[in-house]
Amino acid sequence: MNDSIRQLARAEAAAHGRGGTRAEFGPLVAAHHGPGLPLNSAWHDGSAPLTEADLLDFEAFSAAHDMPATLHLLSPAVNEALPPLTGRGYALTYVLHAYTHDLRDLPPAPTLDVRRSDDPDDWAALSAQGFGPGSEAVMRVVAHLPGTGLYQAHVDGQPAGTAALGLTEGVAALFGTSTLPDRRGLGVQTALLAARLHAAHTQGADLASVFATPGSASERNIRRAGFRLTTLRLTFTRTG
After folding, report:
1. Which of 180, 127, 169 is nearest to 147 (CA)?
2. Of 69, 26, 68, which is closest to residue 50 (Cα–Cα)?
3. Closest CA to 176 of 165, 187, 160
4. Distance (Å, rounded) from C-alpha 34 to C-alpha 224?
5. How confident is the model over 191-229, as pLDDT tens digits?
6. What is the distance between the alpha carbons of residues 74 and 25, in angstroms, rounded to a whole number?
7. DSSP SS3 for 145
8. Can you state the percent helix, strand and coil of the chain, rounding each to 5?
9. What is the dihedral of CA 130, 214, 73, 11, to 10 degrees?
10. What residues have CB less than 8 Å from 11, skipping those under 6 apart?
């Protein structure tokens, strides 16, 4: 595991559970934010091999909060983690590409109007318009996470998209990026990426990270913004 991947794993785990119920089981940091939310999961911090005892404790936490036992880890940790995971009935359920950006090399400043938002509930409602039906509950939780910076892009003076930024241990996590359906193709995501990279640099971060669905339009925007594919985020869920 190289330095940037180790830094990313540590930062994601450290940020996991802010604003919710948080517990640690060996290298796993588990979180619960409310019934049925996709944020209910655990992160492997990359610090040590995962053991069966860690999984048993995490599964007890999951059962106590009526949530599936789902965990995320970066691909360099997989080989050591697979034996206990498969032994406990976990299966790979999702893969995302993990991108990083050295903040000493910034893209041009955004050409669209990007502003900070100080109204989490308004931000969440707008974000849900881009993500689609059923997303507002989780976006409201995201909007209220401690230490989260909220951004809105505007086109012709009207809201066009949303994004969020969180800084942990020198890593700027970019997430919550959403474009309103009738504002797509106007450079909204590109502007939100650039604005947050510049903001993260100003706030002292040295590395930015973002996760993307392989082959998506978002991934193409991320590449154009100067991010490089660093590793994979693998999600495992206990099915047995």
Report:
1. 169
2. 26
3. 165
4. 36
5. 999 999 999 999 999 999 999 999 999 999 999 999 999
6. 17
7. coil
8. 35, 35, 30
9. -60
10. 168, 169, 170, 171, 173, 209
